[in-house]
Amino acid sequence: MKKTHCLKLIDGTFSAADAENVISTLISSKINYHSIESFSNKERFNKDTAHNERRIEELKEAREYLDLIIKRAKQYNRNLVIESYINIGWE
Description:
The protein is an alpha+beta fold.
């Protein structure tokens, strides 16, 4: 994919609790998207859902890893700096 646009989605310093909320909301939304897409493809079109299922597992693993980082930030009463970008292009 040739990158044509780069947009900054998240850019800031957050308390551990706020970072947890931002990250949890983002990842939960992505998991929900893939769950609905998988269900729809399976039920309506009898399509292979391996990509969606694999992506859900990757997102769950990412959430577990980020939960450890947030837990550590809470232990040490630290803020977290979060920057998140999305690259959009055409195939």
